[in-house]
């Protein structure tokens, strides 16, 4: 079983075990949630106004077209209400810019990994089982990825922000590894996953041992741990509001995020292509 699958299975088991202690609470929709809602509503309104896309999606089904247009009409009204809130709009400028910046950094990382993979003839041969057609396809996609990567890496503002994004990713990975190890060491939760399959249980414990080795290396790095602590502190601060400094830099971030933007769908196509071989 792949390590990622094990992590998902074990974390699901943790979630199930904890359900009995959960206390539901009602919260107002966060600014981040409202900004995400606005993005979705805008896309719906844009779709409804694009006859070509609408016909393609609905296959010219008049009933479905009418339903989408009706929903878009409601969405338009909701959008006007949200957009009339100047405080929310200022917050969304920051949130959307940061999201775009993060997406582009993630795309940079994914493309870099793919280009490195494509340059490793041994890895490519193994992944494709020496299938010449698949190897040629990978090389072709790698060429396209390199071009897109050059566009992203030429954006100095974006690239100056990416190390911090990478740091956050690594801190999140450390937390996931810790949860995986903790659950793997909890016999009750382990039994829920293995369901009496001793081979599966042994495999999980072996993966957990490797995870622990990586975790130990991370936690023994004082600089790395200090950075993770700082990130956690920033997260707490962000929950209490968006700073005026971020508001001032929003326009610049949005400008830089737009020029070389390449959709995250690129990552999905490239990565799925790698593992679908």
Q: Can you characterise this structure?
A:
By secondary structure, this protein is mostly helical. It contains 13 helices and no strands. Helix 5 packs parallel to helix 13. The longest helix has 34 residues, at 86-119. Residues 1-28 and 242-277 have low confidence and may be disordered. The chain crosses the membrane at residues 257-276. Keywords: Membrane, Signal, Transmembrane, Transmembrane helix.
Task: Provide a compact summary of the structure.
The protein has 277 residues and is mostly helical. Helix content is 84%, strand content 0%.
Q: What is the element string, with H for helices and E for strands?
A: HHHHHHHHHHHHH
Helix content: over 70%
Terminal CA distance reads 18 Å
Q: Class by helix and strand content? A: mainly alpha
Tally of alpha and pi helices: 13
**Biggest sheet layout:** none
- What ranges have pLDDT less than 50 throughout 5 or more consecutive residues? 1-28, 242-277
Count the beta strands.
Answer: 0
- Counted up, domains total 2
Mean pLDDT over the residues: 79
User: Using only CA atoms, what is the Rg?
Assistant: 23 Å
Strand content: under 5%
**What does the overall shape look like?**
extended
């Amino acid at each position: 079983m792949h390590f990622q699958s094990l992590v998902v299975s074990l974390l699901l088991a943790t979630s199930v075990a904890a359900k009995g202690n959960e206390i539901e609470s009602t919260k107002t929709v966060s600014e981040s949630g409202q900004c995400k809602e606005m993005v979705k509503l805008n896309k719906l309104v844009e779709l409804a106004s694009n006859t070509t896309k609408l016909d393609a999606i609905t296959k010219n089904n008049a009933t479905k077209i009418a339903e989408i247009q009706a929903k878009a009409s409601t969405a338009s009204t909701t959008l006007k209400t949200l957009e009339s809130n100047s405080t929310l709009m200022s917050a969304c400028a920051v949130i959307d810019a940061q999201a775009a910046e993060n997406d582009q950094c993630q795309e940079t990382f994914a493309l870099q990994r793919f280009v490195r993979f494509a340059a490793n003839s041994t890895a490519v041969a193994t992944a494709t089982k020496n299938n010449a057609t698949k190897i040629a396809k990978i090389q072709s996609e790698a060429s396209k990825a390199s071009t897109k990567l050059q566009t992203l890496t030429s954006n100095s503002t974006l690239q100056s922000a990416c190390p911090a994004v990478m740091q956050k990713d690594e801190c999140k990975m450390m937390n996931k590894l810790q949860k995986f190890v903790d659950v793997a060491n909890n016999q009750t939760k382990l039994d829920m996953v293995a369901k009496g399959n001793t081979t599966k249980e042994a495999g999980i414990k072996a993966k957990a041992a490797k995870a622990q080795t990586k975790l130990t290396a991370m936690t023994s790095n004082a600089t790395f741990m200090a950075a993770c602590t700082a990130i956690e502190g920033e997260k707490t601060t962000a929950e209490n509001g968006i700073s005026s400094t971020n508001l001032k830099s929003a326009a610049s971030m949005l400008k830089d995020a737009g020029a070389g933007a390449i959709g995250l769908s690129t990552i999905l196509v490239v990565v799925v292509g790698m593992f679908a071989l």
